[in-house]
Structures are given as C-alpha cells and as structure tokens.
Design goal:
With 351 residues, this protein is α+β, with helices and mostly antiparallel strands. It folds into 2 domains: 88 residues, Alpha-Beta Plaits; 242 residues, Rossmann fold. It contains 10 helices and 15 strands. Strands 6, 7, 8, 9, 10, 11, 12, 13, 14 and 15 form a 10-stranded mixed sheet that branches. It has a 5-stranded antiparallel sheet with strand order 2-3-1-4-5, covered by helices on one side. S-adenosylmethionine (SAM) binds next to helix 6.
Length: 351
Amino acid sequence: MSGPTEERGAVELLLLIAPSANRVYADAAPSLMAAEIRCLADAFIDSAVEAEPVMIADVEYVRVRADGLTDVARRALSNASSVHALYEQEGEDLLRPVRAERLDRYPSDLLTIQKYPGKTNEQLTRLLLNVTAAATTRPERLLDGTLAVLDPMCGRGTTLNLALTYGLDVTGVDVDKHDLEAYETFLKTWMRQHRLKHTVSTGSIRTGGEHRGRRMDVEVAPTKEDFKAGRSQHLTYLGTDTTRLDGLVRGASVDVVVTDTPYGVQHGSHGDRIARNPLELLESALPGWVRVLRTGGAVGMSYNRHVAAPEQLADLLERHGLTVVGDPADDRFRHRVDASIDRDVVVARKG
Ligand SMILES: C[S@@+](CC[C@H](N)C(=O)[O-])C[C@H]1O[C@@H](n2cnc3c(N)ncnc32)[C@H](O)[C@@H]1O
C-alpha cells in the first residue's frame, strides 16, 4: 500500500458517477454505489460515515461524510464501482478535484471491449467484488494485490478481467466450452495488441482417467520488468462443471468467490444456456465453493429475485455453513434489469 497512513479531521467527498451506456444501470448507479460505500466504510473506515446520492447542478454524485479518512480508506473509495472523479467539498459551493487512486493496472478496454449477450455489467461486477472483499476478515488484500479470487460461473470473463485489472490472481470456471474458447481468443488477442509480456498454456482436464473439459493457464504482467521480477499475475480458466471442483482447486486457497449466477432466462446464444434451476445448481455447487474458501473469506453473488427470494438464498447459504452479512432482504442492492430480471446481491462469510 502506498504512502503514509494519516488521519485527518471531518471530510466531505463527492464521488462523481461514471457515465454508463447502460440506461438501466445508470439510473440505479447512485443508490447502488452509496450502499457499496457503506460496506467499504465498514471494512476500511473506523469513524462514522454517511454515504448518500445527491444531485448538484443537475449532476449526480454520491456524497461521503466521514470524521476522518486514512490513505487506505481514500484508496478504497477511489475504486468504488461507479466513480468517475473525486472532489472534496470546500465551504458551500466549491469542489476541489482530488486524484482518484485507481487500482487499475491495464487499459480499461480489457473490461469494456467485449460485447455479448449475457455479459455482466462491469460496474456491477466491480461492486460485487468490492463488497465481497469488504466482507472478508482481510479486506486490505483487495488493495495490496493479494486477494485470491474465484468466479465459479465466469462466462466470458468479466470478473476475470476485473481481477486482472486490480492486479489479483484469479480462477474462473464455466461449463460452456464456447465461453472458454471465446475468452481464450479475446484474451490472447488483447494481450498481444497491448504488447504485454505473457505466457498461455492450454490442456485437457483429467481426473481418475475421466476427461472433464479444457483448461487455460495464463501468466501476465504490465511490463517485461514486472514479469522478470516475478510481479506477474496468474489466471486459470477451468472449462468444466462448477459442481465438481475437487481435485481442480485447492481447499482453503481462495479469499472470495464472486459470481453472477444464472438468471433462469435465455440470453440469445450465450449465458444461461444450461437449463437447470439456479437454486438446485447452487445447492450442488456450494459445498465445493465453501471448501476452496479460506476461513474468513466470503461469497458474493448477484441473482435474479424472480428465481429465488432473498430469504431462500440466505437460508441456502447458512445451511452450507456461511454467515450472511447484513439483511439480505433490505433492497439496498436490488435493481430491475428488465421485465424478467429483478437483480439483487447477497454476501456471506465463512467463519
Ligand atoms: C450470468 S452468466 C455469467 C456471465 C459472466 N459473468 C460474464 O460476464 O460473461 C452465468 C454462467 O453460469 C454458467 N453455468 C451454468 N451452470 C454451470 C455449471 N454447472 N458449471 C459451470 N458454469 C455454469 C453458464 O454457462 C453462464 O456462463
């Protein structure tokens, strides 16, 4: 973590909301980010914090008032999901720009350039990773590059790309082999175009003589010097069924499991093609996900309320030995995506 950690007096920050091409998400972003900041505050700020959406001269911000902010807390807030710019309020009418300390290690097109039906919104993915990391007993790992991430239903890799962006090691799993193929083609092309030092190896997944799919292992760093010095990141994509991770992902090796679960609706040619009740799928997958989580780690999932009620999901997570963080039915992360998707987020901790 950079710079000295220093407390200051009362601070009022205004977080300008990033523009979003997605109308639905743009409408929900201010209140979603205010709720996200309250979670980040629980993890990174000792003093009392208020966070609320405000409109100033017809422009939307989230206002954060705190009794004091450490450098680490400022860093965490700078990386909230929809931050476009930061300002400190001086007196009644003046906003002073403050440098946002982004974690982002790679050009932003890593997250934005892929477009496909069923892609999880990038800002929602950031929110999910941030609030899940904040719920762990070691939230600082999000900021110092040591948080180990698993997206056990990663599709074409929005979480994987975000983890790379944050400088983290990440594993993704998806049973749809077309998703692995598409992601492999995308990532190889993207790394080449950006002249990043990298290695890629692919092979088949076999356990006990049984063929279980394909895998891809990637090592990448922003510069040759970083790569040589071992400051590279590792990404693994397992093209296999997430309900059978034994022998493929080590126990207690992951800090956060974050995933956008199937919505139980059809997304064109990709996304939720695997016809299965999402709750049944989670029931079979959770034992494996909990096994690979470290004690003190957390699971964060977005899900469709038309498929499961928050209480049902909370009950499922608790039955698998996790402790749900906050009130799952409080609507703070709930937002309507379209007529068939009423999206919400649930977070639960191990131990
Ligand atoms: C909502 S999509 C995730 C989209 C992803 N976040 C993205 O942005 O590309 C849910 C994913 O769950 C995957 N899935 C469904 N059942 C699965 C299973 N049994 N094992 C692994 N993946 C599964 C689907 O193939 C789909 O890609």
